[in-house]
Amino acid sequence: MEQAVIAALLLVGLVIGAGVGAAYARAKRGWKDYRTARNLVPGTRRTAWLATRAVITKVGVIALLLVGAAAYAAVGSDHERADPAPTPTITSTPGHPAGR
User: Fold this and answer.
1) For 12-70, how does the pLDDT look when each residue is reduced to its tens digit (9 = 90+)?
2) Cα torsion for 68, 74, 78, 84, to the nearest 10°?
3) Would 92 disulfide with which of 47, 49, 59, 98, CB 3.0-4.6 Å?
4) N- to C-terminal Cα distance for the chain?
5) What is the DSSP letter of 82?
6) pLDDT surpasses 70 at 99
7) What letter would DSSP give residue 90?
């Protein structure tokens, strides 16, 4: 009878130990993953800001080009505002008939 109690206690201890051991292994793995991710954050953050800066620069250049094109379209070209070209006057020279 004593052996049955010892076997039951051993079985209960084994089940509890396996549960606690698995929980400990999961917690240790979680902390290791956390430390790895925490150490990667500065590099990842730097990369993200570099990508963001590149996009903002491209958008800024495109916006400036659009504003310049709109301003040019609003003002119009110089050809439309130029005075009309003078009409040539035909004068006759001695020895040549007029209009030729």
Assistant:
1) 999 999 999 999 999 999 999 999 988 888 888 888 999 999 999 999 999 999 999 99
2) 170
3) 98
4) 141
5) S
6) no
7) P
Kindly state the tokens that stand for 40: 């990667």
- On whether the CB atoms of residues 9 and 1 are closer than 8 A, the answer is no
| pTM across the whole model | 0.44
DSSP type of residue 96: S
Helix (H, G, I), strand (E, B) or coil at 17: helix
Q: How far apart are CA 91 and CA 63, in angstroms?
A: 56
d(CA 80, CA 35): 69
Q: Which amino acid is at 10?
A: L
Query: CA quadruple 25, 27, 33, 39: dihedral positive or negative?
Result: negative
